[in-house]
## 1
Amino acid sequence: MPVKTPKQLVESKFGTRKDLVAKIVPLIGADDDEKRRLLGTTNAKLLRIHEVAEQVQKQFGGKAKLIDAIAKLQFAGKAPNDGWREKMDGLTVKRLFDKHRGLAN
């Protein structure tokens, strides 16, 4: 059986790219600018973003709770400084998830 291309995977699982982006936006809390950028992203990246965003949603309950989990691991009971949370809010869900995996190991 031949391997499906990212375009074929998007079409079989979600219908269209717009449908996939519509599923990603609430998972990552994207605004209109981020939504526009997602629409210009490749199918392979969109599939990966969706996969990571779903995993974060299941494991942590969202981006904010993932940031809280990173803070617990990184600061071990101490409160992070004021600018730290703002900086973390600016990172993508995938980058935050990678940071958490790095700290957990």
## 2
Amino acid sequence: MTVNTTTEAPAVRDQECLLCGAAPGQPCQPKPEGDHLARYLDAYTAGQLTKAYMAMVLGELVVIDQCAVITAAGAR
């Protein structure tokens, strides 16, 4: 499952993805480039993403699951 966002969140890739082990700075999924929701939740918990940004991301999901992949901006 992939979801497209309208803006990118560079803070999402500051840490290793605890779900798939993607290294800092690397996407969880190469094509289309994207990251697991778990990474977004970790960045939000660390205070790196705003509540409004997370609401936008979660608002686009049909099913909320930490394994959902959020694709980079412009992938629509």
## 3
Amino acid sequence: MKKLICQLGFVIGVTALITGCSTMCHKDQKETNVPWASVPAVVQSTIQAHQYGGTVGTVEKETMKCGIVYEAKIQGSEGKCAEVTVAKDGKLLKYKTEK
């Protein structure tokens, strides 16, 4: 019984930690459009890897509580659009498609 309670406590603790960490990364409302040439090469590479034949439109640099991220709008074929969010180290944070 003690072992079960310890395991349950561990699971709850890890869940709370993950939830706390994910909620720490919110916008600080500092967004600026940046020219493609100013986007770090590692970020450009990740955006291009998720371009899927589309065209990169605007790129915004956003200051968030967890650091700087880049959000690119991609115009795809057949009127579909995508939004790619990448951390400054090149890690893909989010990929969302839109009509």
